[in-house]
Amino acid sequence: MKKILLLIVLPVMTMACGERASRGQAQHKTDQGNTFPMYSEAVGDTFTVSVNLPNNYKKEDSAKYPVIYLLDANLYFDIVATTLNKYSDLGLTPSVILVGVGYKDFSAMDSLRTRDDTYPTAIPEYEMELSGGADKFLSFIDNELVPKIDKDYRTDTSKRVLMGHSLGGYFTTYAFLQHLSGKDNRFNSYIAASPSIHYNNYWMLDQLKAASDVEGNAKKVNLYITYGGLEDEESESDSSIMKLADLTNQLSNLVSIKQSRSVNYKTDIFSNLDHMDTQLPTFIKGLQWALNEEDK
């Protein structure tokens, strides 16, 4: 079967997320945040949502904060939360509320993210048991999760960021596409680390091109996409995979069509990083850039 989504995560990462996975879907509250199960009518399944508050949240009881929505939370939430809190203390990033969207445990994440992060249904050669549910997953985030977070916490509703890696990066790009197409979307910034744009023979590129002919959403948005330079090794063994330079050039050309619609686009290739190395530098650099753009 053609290599497509890098669904197998390194064993060390599995061990790292074990503590969070063991919490299951139990309610878990601390002074710093909250973890709770949330049933989605749109998806017909229950997700585990984790919230991390900035260190100064209780001290500044009238302040409102940007909200970062992070996918694959079973794997990334703890380390991103710790990093953002420390960076905020040092003045390297603004204080933010981090919302992680995850599953009851790591095993569930590994099997269900193909259902929630992809659209349309996977072509037969991928042999995916579940796929094509990104429209329902986005509806859950937009219409169920975001309103709850805005109700329960002091959020700056003008600064919402969606970010994900690999399949999560693909979903992030899909959400950006919905914005371009003029459909309701609640985010101001999209951060995608090594997005699996090659899914379904580069369906996403065709859709971005088609969206250039649609009268879209005029709201200002930011899009940040990265890859690791070592990911080019895959294109050497699979002729259907574009070289990174070609892919990022196509993305840049397609997104540049949207400049009249106030799209700020930035891309980086981290020369010495592989697919599984791009998450944290992308999330941190992307947030620094996107939140700075939103303040202009």
Order of adjacent strands in the largest pleated sheet = 1-2-3-5-4-6-7-8-9
The rounded Rg comes to 18 Å
Q: Percent of residues in helical segments?
A: 40-55%
Number of strands: 9
Characterize the largest beta sheet: strand count, sense, and whether it forms a barrel: 9 strands, mixed
Oligomer: single chain
Give the structural class. Answer: alpha/beta
Straight-line N-to-C gap: 47 Å
Proportion of residues in β-strands: 15-25%
Number of helices: 10
The shape, in one word, is: globular
Q: Quote the average pLDDT.
A: 87
Low-confidence stretches: 1-25
Order of helical and strand elements: HHEEEEHEHHEHEHEHHEH
Q: Could you characterize the architecture of this molecule?
A:
- The protein has 296 residues and is α/β, with parallel strands linked by helices.
- The protein has 10 helices and 9 strands.
- It starts with 10 loop residues before the first helix and ends with a helix.
- The relative contact order is 0.13.
